[in-house]
Structures are given as structure tokens and as C-alpha cells.
Amino acid sequence: MTFLKERVQGQESLLKVAAVQFEPQIGNLAGNKEKLISLIKQAFKEEAKLIVTPECGNGGYIFNNRSEAFECAEHVPDGPMIKELEKIARNQNGYIVCGIIEKEENLLYNTAALIGPKGFIGKYRKNHLWDVDKILYEPGNLGFPVFDLPFGKVGISICYDAWFPEVSRIYAAQGVDILCHPTAWVVVPGLAEPKNPLWAYNAMTQAHHNSMFMVCADRIGTERGITFAGCSCICGLPGFIEGPISHDKEEILFAEINVTDARRKRLGEWNHLLRDRRTDLYDNLLGYNDNQSRS
Questions:
Q1: Domain 5-264 falls under CATH 3.60.110.10
Q2: Looking at 56, 72, 98, 159, which residue is catalytic?
């Protein structure tokens, strides 16, 4: 399979993407790295060219304190995990979005790094901090960066970011085709459970509302009394393209997507999700003003 395949009709761009679902062990940096790299290599072997891994996959999630989290953090892009992923991406001529705990001097960030065939490309730091994230990490300070890759424009969000529709809409307005979403969705009894995976439904809705693809890679397992949800999924304008998958198994979810579909932003011949916005009516607090023309 070539890096990008072109359909005879319409010159449509097809790309195979993968969401890696696995169970990191808190504090087990060597073991997590070994397992994650094995799964990434397996995804590349199955000809995926864009691979997304879970949030904080290098060190675990439920830390007792900031010092413990700091022991599991590394510099981005100069840490050992990123350097190893650079080698793999170079050898496989592919791209990886990896959830990782980042340290910068005495600061900690919940980060996702983008690595490609030429090495480290960029990173996103989680902007909306969930629960105890607030006492472990600094709020993201890189905004919503867009990465222009050979197959299209890519954005990154992490877990709780998806509960803020402004995030995916900002990315859509910047022309993002694929939103990579490392996550650590947790089970909330009576509200969000594997039988009712609201996290996955939320991702599906975000993808549909913005005519973009979302590749959501979740973790599994129970860590210090908190159970993670699994149910990784790949979504687009039509809804679920693949998944949600299991809530308790390590596995890789694949999908071949037509990146061009995201660029159309259309819900029919007369409907366009960005041009049809009534920005003349929306509150200035949403980032619009009376003189702003519709995109």
C-alpha cells in the first residue's frame, strides 16, 4: 500500500490510521515503553501511516502527588521515548501521535507529541485539565497548533478537551482534516460506562459537527481504584467509521479514511458546516464580531 493512494475517480486521498489501545502500568517506564513500541510496530506492519496512542501512556495516570508524576515525565523532544519513536517513524515512513508526561524545568504538562519520518514535528499540551490533573500539571500554553502533513492538516486534543466544543470547532475553522485524540476515558458509574460509552458518542458528535476525522486512542485497566473505559474509536462525518472497540482488551483499531471527505465540510449539496454559521448573531465571547464575514 502506498503512502497515499489516489482513486481513479475524483483523486480522493486514502490514508490508513490506527488507534492503539493498551494498559500502561503506573511508574513502569521500561515496561510501558516496550509494550507501546511493540504495538506501534504492529500497527505499522499492518500498513497504518498515522498512529495515535493513549494519554500519558509512558507512565500511567493516577498519581498520588506531583513528585510521583515528575518521576514518570521526560523532556519533549529530547527524552528517551521520543527518540525511540523518531527511529521507528523514520524506518516506517509514518507518523505517530503519542500521549506522554512532559517535564520542562520544574513544570509538568500532559502532552501529546507528533513524530514523523524526519523526526519530532511538534506537540500539544492539554488545555482543559480534568480533576486531579489540575494539581499535577500546568494548563496547556501552546494553544491549538495545526500541523500540515503530506496527507492533510492534523490537530491534537487530549481527553477532557473533547468536552469543550470550541476545541474541535477552532480546529475545523483552521482547516484540520484529522483530529488525533489521545485519551484516558474513565468509567463513571451511572453516567458513562462501557454499555453506554458517552465518551465515544461525544467524539462521534464532534467529528460529525465539524466534518473532520477523529482518531481516539484510549487506555484500559484499573489503576488505584479507577477503571478506564477503553472503547477506542475512529469517527468522521457519517459517525463511527470503526469502533467503539472493547473496554478491557489491548488491541489496535484500524480504518482507511478518505481525507478529502473532511475538506468538503458538507452535509448535502446546499449545506456547508462553516459557511452556514451565523457569525453575525453569535456572541463576541465566542470569538466573533459583527463585522466578521462567514468562512
A1: yes
A2: 159
